[in-house]
Amino acid sequence: MSGQRVNRRVVLKSRPVGVPQADHFEIVESQIPELASGEFLVRNDYLSVEPAMRGWVNAAANYSDAVGIGEVMRAFAAGEVVASRHESYAVGDKVMGMLGWQDYCVTNGDPVRRKVLEGDLPLTLSLGILGINGVTAYFALGEIGQPRAGETVVVSTAAGAVGSAVGQLAKLAGCRTVGIAGGADKVRLCLDEFGFDAAVDYKDPNFAQRLAEACPSGVDVYYDNTSGSISDAVLRHINKFARIVICGTASVQSWDPWPTGPRPERHLLNKSARMQGFLVWDYEHRYEEAVGQLAAWVRSGQLRYREEIVDGMERAPGSIAELYSGANIGKRLIRLETGR
Amino acid sequence: MSGQRVNRRVVLKSRPVGVPQADHFEIVESQIPELASGEFLVRNDYLSVEPAMRGWVNAAANYSDAVGIGEVMRAFAAGEVVASRHESYAVGDKVMGMLGWQDYCVTNGDPVRRKVLEGDLPLTLSLGILGINGVTAYFALGEIGQPRAGETVVVSTAAGAVGSAVGQLAKLAGCRTVGIAGGADKVRLCLDEFGFDAAVDYKDPNFAQRLAEACPSGVDVYYDNTSGSISDAVLRHINKFARIVICGTASVQSWDPWPTGPRPERHLLNKSARMQGFLVWDYEHRYEEAVGQLAAWVRSGQLRYREEIVDGMERAPGSIAELYSGANIGKRLIRLETGR
To answer: Where is the signal peptide (chains A, B) (predicted)?
Structure first.
């Protein structure tokens, strides 16, 4: 049955240095093989686009092996089981996981992260606020940031899929929240949609001054998704025992060669402060705990999110570069209409 | 009675930028005032010299206010109560604390850190292995480094008063210990006296290569007392979940202007690693716990130390610069023969 379907796949054509562009990928078609025993077929309905994908294709050392040339692009996707010879997955099950930028995924289940059980909520949320973005916010803030009521939490990429969640979770924890975002539209979104107490535009020529004004009691927690000069400015305001959560380095175009910046050691020492790298994969065993809590907040209206859904696989190759251009607002997803 | 004694005091004459030199200080004499009720008089027998004193006199932001011009140099010292109108301190009590670079200290007790109760051990130890150096090693390694048996612990300034203790405590915790020190003599001291499994000379033109060879399983804990290029080399070898304890920045001459170096963010992120500043003052409430454990290890011969005692207050003004020249081996102390 599945052998009759054509599978379009976005494969890596050449290895990028820095941010991957559309022409580092190509779309190829292939037949879907017959299912072996223990396999099932997922039809991807939504493909995810993450800033982290830059690292997944770069040759420089990272936390996982780079995607190989000619391989389908590693990506989260969500969809539905349309054929199964696997005892734990039935036709009609909704699943999400590392299913790749492609129409269909034949799998033994290993790349599936979870069945999506929140049938009352849109499937797209499993790739965003109830997926890697929300789960990242939940553990990065809760486990590394450890916010306490009354503290000031500063968030970079504050209008983004993770940053907007971090800000709202910090607010739920009783903190003063200060968002950093690029441009007036995103600053307004931080204030009006995501409830930040203050928001600062890093493109403002007086950014450092504005940041200082927004943090009259200093900074206790910094959710750092940018590195670079934005983070250097925040570091100058950290309080005693501050926690800096290193979650991304969006403002640094390349780590090869290794870029330089102001050394943090003396600041960390003087403030008994902590700078700690966060990878959501380290918390995989607690994924359902996070999703359950996040879903409850979504249902109660205490946790808001933005999505930016574009149609068609042909939008995938250029989508990582579009993320890094800073133009998008909300979680970027690609909707496929395969086989419907 | 105390009014008859002359007190020589080392006072700060001008504000240094970077490492204070002998001519930033001058020795002045004054009469000792009569004791008021609630005061007592300590005769300092030993003055301490710490790398941290650089920060105590610099104008740049630090964890404590800078010593004022004309004020006695802030310093640890140990000595004996020779007169008392304080109900908790009797003549003959041995005390240590922030008693300053001077012959005598009239005090209400606030600068005293503790009575020295280890009468079976030399008083000098209260300023070194049973003082700020040993206590720093104990909490920096135990609380921030959190070494586990079988892990690799790398120590900079490994032949120094704190580093040598860190290495030995890590060894007691079952770790592989790798010391970094300057010059063949200190490397030998690390191996022969302080039991490091390997020791590397940072002055070796092939330092980076030697360091890599000494850490075949990577680095789990790095006790960083230097910052700068030594630490940059270590950072390239950290393992998943590594802990970097920022305890000093001896290799950086000045933080004004703020020096640059390779950014650590991506390394910390890829390894879910932590870089944390450590100040021993944060653990003041647990000081006796540390001293008790350290004294037991000293008595059993499991914890060794080196002292370098020089005679006469006139040695004090130049002693911080001597520390930073890297020439000394062991805890630097100044012995006074006042009033004996």
So the answer is: none
The three-class DSSP label of residue A179 is strand
Same domain as B327, residue B264: no
**CB atoms B246 and A263 under 8 Å:** no
pLDDT (tens digit, 9 = 90+) per residue, B101-139? 999 999 999 999 999 999 999 999 999 999 999 999 999
| pLDDT one-digit tens code per residue, A11-43 | 999 999 889 999 999 999 999 999 999 999 999
Residues A195-254 have pLDDT tens digits of: 999 999 999 999 999 999 999 999 999 999 999 999 999 999 999 999 999 999 988 888
Element (H, E) at A293: helix A287-299
Whether residue A338 has pLDDT greater than 90 = no
Which residues in chain B have their CB less than 8 angstroms from residue A279's CB? 269-270, 272
Interchain proximity B276–A271, CB inside 8 Å: no
Residue of chain A with shortest Cα separation from B140: A272
Residue A278 to residue B269, Cβ atoms within 8 A = yes
Residue B53 three-state SS: helix
| Tally of structural domains, chain B | 2
B257 preceded by cis ω (within 30°)?
yes
Cα A288 to Cα A251: distance, rounded to the nearest angstrom: 31
CATH code: domain of residue B179: 3.40.50.720
Residues of A within 8 A of B276 (CB-CB) are 268, 272-276
Q: Residue A139 falls within a domain, yes or no?
A: yes
Domain that holds residue A31: 2-128+306-335
ipTM: 0.88
What b/e sequence results for B26-45 when a residue is b if at least 16 CB atoms lie within 10 Å of its CB, and e otherwise?
eeeeeebeebeeebbbbbbb
- Distance to chain B for A272, nearest Cα, Å: 4
| Helix or strand run (H / E) with residue A164 | helix A161-172
